[in-house]
Amino acid sequence: MNTSFTTPLLENEMLLLKPLTSADSEAYYGLYSNSKTIERYDQPPIRLNETPVAFTNRILASCDFIWTIRFQSTPEEIIGDCALHDWDKANGRIEIGGSLSPAYWGMNLMKQAFELIIDFAVQSLKIQLFIGRTSPLNSQAIRLVEKLGFSKEAVVDNDQVLILRIR
What we know:
CATH topology: Aminopeptidase
Distance between the termini: 27 Å
Mean pLDDT: 92
Order of helices and strands: EEHHHEEEHEHEE
């Protein structure tokens, strides 16, 4: 979907956000095969009989930018992902989302990853409005993005919609 920008490598002292590639298929599929991860979604992210390569390629095709989340200390291990999608270039809007392996919940890692991609999107893409969607029952995700400055906007199609305006 992304036609004019290459997904860059992003990093801080702890995390490495590497662009997702089809070479990551097995590990990426494993992230979304975890039963605790799946319970956060209204519908399972992986389709019936979908192979790791097909799943990864479908996700790659649906995102403008998508990164795997890894530790600097163990760059071969994928612990999560974060993405920007549905980029409205004309209005400077984009949706943000991600998932983290349950073993790493509560460690402030997704907040750090989102800070990296929000900074990238503001600086490089001139994004002025971020949109996040999650189940109204996903209190962890809602608290996370509220810490980043997002506010609850509405419930649409059983999703809590949260927004962050950049001034």
